[in-house]
Amino acid sequence: MNEPARETSDAAEDTSTRHRILAATAEVLGRSGQTKLSLSEVALQAGVSRPTLYRWFASKKELLDAFGIYEREMFETGIAKATAGLRGNDRVDAAMRFIVEYQQSYSGVRLVDIEPEVVIGRLAHIIPTMRTQLEKLLPGPNGAVKAATAIRVAVSHYIVRSDDDDQFLAQLRHAVGVRNS
């Protein structure tokens, strides 16, 4: 009878371990970049042994692929939480505020300083995904244009970081046609 509870506990531990490894990957990438990413350094940052890391991710490529999915899921989950229960302009404004907060708090954001060519290459995959996510919040005939503009403003702030969060938010709000709340 205790077996199912143990299986649930093991699954939770596995999810936690995997999450710690992926979160550690963000930290290490922010310091070293993708080219110099060391699996040993990721294991140390995550507080796991190298064999544990290799149990989850057999190679650097496998870890980086999983990390890309992890990043996308973090963004999608965050924007969903930020906009939950809201409607209309309040929902859109919450999404814009989330984008600013996410970008300013996300440790991997400085990867662009370390390996700009890697980041620029990944943007071709990231921009359409982010735009599609934002388009869902922007109904109407200009929704696609507003979403594309907001994402490009966000990417611009990602590449050339500004310390002025209020200006960044004002630009995003302007792009999507939302007045200051």
UniProtKB/TrEMBL annotation:
Name of the protein in question: HTH-type transcriptional regulator BetI
Pfam families in alphabetical order: TetR_N
Keywords: DNA-binding
UniProt DNA-binding residue ranges: 38-57
Record's keyword annotation contains DNA-binding: yes
Organism: Mycolicibacterium vanbaalenii
Keyword DNA-binding: yes
Coiled-coil annotated spans: none
GO molecular function: DNA-binding transcription factor activity; transcription cis-regulatory region binding
UniProt-listed PROSITE patterns: HTH_TETR_2 (PS50977)
Listed InterPro entries: Homeodomain-like_sf, HTH-type_TetR-like_transc_reg, HTH_TetR
The HTH tetR-type domain, residue ranges: 15-75
